[in-house]
Write a structure and sequence with these properties.
This protein is mostly helical and about 70 residues long. Helix content is about 30%, strand content about 0%. The model has no long low-confidence stretch (mean pLDDT about 75).
Length: about 70
Amino acid sequence: MIRSYRDKRTEAFENGESVRSFPDFSRQAGKRLEILDEAKLTDHPIALPGNRFEAPSGDRAGQFSICIN
């Protein structure tokens, strides 16, 4: 489940706003965000290596990220 967004553009996109830098991959981004939002555990299928699901370190420890571009 998505609790917060580090990038304001991604949050705006998820809230249905048009984001200029996302038009080339908006369909894929929407699909990935939907899957990520539905994920409840880190062993969910979103955690497959091809999705680049990872746990950042440092000040982002305890959070997870996914690359969509």
